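Section 3.1: Structural characterization of target chains.
Under the original work plan, the team committed to producing a structural model for every single-chain target entering the pipeline before any wet-lab resources were allocated. The record below documents one such target. The sequence was received from the expression subgroup and is listed exactly as submitted; it comprises 218 residues.
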Amino acid sequence: MSEKPWRSDSEILAKGVGSDAERLTGLIDSAGARATAGDLAGAAESLESVRRLLVGQNYFRQYDNDIWVFTEVIRCIRRQSAETETPRSFQRFIDAIPSARMDESMTRAQLAFWYGTPDAKVGGEIRLIPSQENAKGCFIATATYGSALAPEVMALRDFRDGVLLRHPLGRCFVRSYYAISPPLALWIKSRPLAQRVVRALFLSPLLAVLRRARTDAR
């Protein structure tokens, strides 16, 4: 396990905050260290500073798919702590995580958390398939399985981060994928037959290969 398992997600967030990148990754590292030391309340304090930084930059109005990235940071940091009870200050972050249903409307409390106001017009629905070409989502897999947090989508994301992005050809493939996949995903997500075909012919065989490779590597 990585010493800082939240690092790849914090670097995705950092790319969108310009000169505050180092501060953001430092705050997330601090949250992780505090959680590891058994101080979830302190971790929540650091995460709140991250949230305020992102909200202050209207970050999620630009990159609303990165809601999922930040929620993965929250979940990851919670897992670092052996505390059995979650303090209210940290539970606030968990409660702000929207469910993984496609196009789900957020509550006013969630809108306030992510956009700084419960009356935010942007983000009234979670757009798992954003328009930004540089957003970091598994678009077609999300449209096929119906959730950005489906185990299959998370496995493909791990393959992207752990294998493809570590090599020049893999990075080239990922950039090309981001350029062409959003319109395909939009078409797939409203067509159950297309979802079944993509799952059966492409994604399930790929996932089987990845599972076999992990087994062989043990």
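Residues 7-115 form one domain.
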